[in-house]
Amino acid sequence: xxxxxEAGVPLAVLEALCVGRPCVVxxxxxxxxxxxxxxxxxxxxxxxxxxxEALHRMATAGNQTLAxxxxxxxxxxxxxxxWPKAARTLTEAYARYAARxxxxxxxxxx
Length: 110
Hints:
The protein is 58% helix and 11% strand.
C-alpha cells in the first residue's frame, strides 16, 4: 500500500518490515538505500515503469528469495528503526538546528 510520512517515518513501510515483508519503496521513502542495503526489498524510481518492474521482480522471485528478504526486513526493523535510534537522530538534528540558529546571532531558544 502507498505509505504516508507520519513524524518523518513511512509507517506502512515500517509495518511491513516489522512483520517480515520485503518492501518496494521510492528513494523518497528510503533516501539512504537502507532497505536494499540490508537485502530487505527494492528502491525504485517513482514512475509507473519503475514500480511495475519492481513488482514483476517480486512476483517472479523464488520463495526462498522472498523468505530471505523477509527475514532481513524483520532484522532491519529490529536493529535500525528503534526508539533509541529515533531519539538519538532527533536529538542530533535539534542540536544542529540550535547551533545553526545560535551561530546566526539568535539564541537557541528563539
